Amino acid sequence: MRIQNAYHNNLKNISLNLPENQLIVVTGLSGSGKSSLAMGVIGNEGYRYFLESLPAYNQQNATAIPTALVDDITALPPVIKVEQSKRFQSINATFGTLAELTPIFRILFARYSTTENMSKSLFSFNHPKGACETCRGIGEAEYIDIAKLVGDENKTLREGAIVTTLPNGYIVYSQVTVEELNKVCEAHGFTVDIPWKDLTQEQKNVIWNGSDRLQVYYGKHSLESRLRWEGFKAKPREIGYYKG
């Protein structure tokens, strides 16, 4: 690639011959024109060449950039410009989406697929059709660490085997009291007074995953206790199936 008479920003009539297939480092003092050469001249001209290859409609909707101040550039290869500044805070933003490479690959995969009626949406992690069912396209999946949730296997549920159990018997996140949970357990043939280590895996699954055998009250305050609150209109606790 040959750059002839570049005078972009701090560059003063710089001419260069850059070899192909080589790792080239642009270094120098602050203000010497490193970014002007790499980003302002090579990067901007590469982007302009790329826009010229697109249909007119895409060119009209593309982001306008200033023309590089250079007399001539020959043998300019395809350019990918990666800036240091992080413009997007979205967790779904990747190098492929920011460089606009991902949409191109999606179209290629859909068109050249051996399976008929393939849509480009199937290759997008940001689309419900193509996103991973486990992580939903984020790349990370949340799960509960059972080993940390159960504090002491020798304790019963009533004694606080689950570490999120409050002193008043309310189980945080499950949003039910131990007494309400006991109703669910009894519907499955056991109680909250059995040590955790003695519960079967099926019984533990009821605790973790819930049950649809009967409905229980959610919340930690009964209607009677709510009636004693001044300044609030007391409402009965919500009722529903235990969700775990």
Output the keywords:
244 residues; alpha+beta; Helicase, Ruva Protein, domain 3; three-stranded antiparallel β-sheet; two-stranded antiparallel ribbon; 8 helices; 27% helix; 10% strand; DNA-binding; zinc ion binding; DNA binding
- The global form is elongated
Distance between the termini: 64 Å
Helix content: 25-40%
| CATH class descriptor name of the largest domain | Mainly Alpha
Protein name: UvrABC system protein A
InterPro entries: P-loop_NTPase (IPR027417), UvrA_DNA-bd (IPR041552)
Organism: Zunongwangia profunda
Keywords: ATP-binding, Cytoplasm, DNA damage, DNA excision, DNA repair, DNA-binding, Excision nuclease, Metal-binding, Nucleotide-binding, Repeat, Zinc, Zinc-finger
Can you describe what's shown?
The mean pLDDT is 82. It contains 8 helices and 7 strands; from the N terminus they run ββααβαααββααβαβ. The protein is elongated, with a radius of gyration of 32 Å. The N and C termini lie far apart (64 Å). A 3-stranded antiparallel sheet has the order 2-1-3, covered by helices on one side. The chain has a two-stranded antiparallel sheet with strand order 4-5. A two-stranded antiparallel sheet has the order 6-7. The longest helix has 19 residues, at 34-52. It has helices at 34-52, 56-61, 95-98, 102-111, 146-149, 178-187, 201-209, 223-226; strands at 2-6, 14-17, 70-74, 170-171, 176-177, 215-217, 239-241. The chain has 3 domains: 2-74, no CATH class; 91-143, no CATH class; 146-241, Helicase, Ruva Protein, domain 3, CATH 1.10.8. A hairpin with a 7-residue loop joins β1 and β2. With 244 residues, it is α+β, with helices and mostly antiparallel strands. 14% of the residues are buried. 27% of the residues lie in helices and 10% in strands.
